[in-house]
Task: inverse folding
């Protein structure tokens, strides 16, 4: 099973304060939202009901966006 890094773990990894890491993550989310929102299409309730349950570990989700490098 995969676990995402916590702010504390990232702060140690990048030699930055936990607050700095948190601010960077939140700023990044705002930048992504501002510049990439045109690529996101929200599902209707009917589409969501049809698609949900396809992810084995997140039963109520209909998809995932992940920036993890594999």
Result:
């Amino acid at each position: 099973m995969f676990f995402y890094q916590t702010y504390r773990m990232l702060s140690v990894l990048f030699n930055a304060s936990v607050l700095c890491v948190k601010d960077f993550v939140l700023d990044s989310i705002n930048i992504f939202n501002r510049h990439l929102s045109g690529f996101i299409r929200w599902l209707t309730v009917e589409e969501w009901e049809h698609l949900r349950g396809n992810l084995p570990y997140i039963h109520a989700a209909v998809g995932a966006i992940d920036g993890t490098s594999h």
Observations:
- Helices lie at 7-13, 18-36, 45-51.
- The chain has a mean pLDDT of 83.
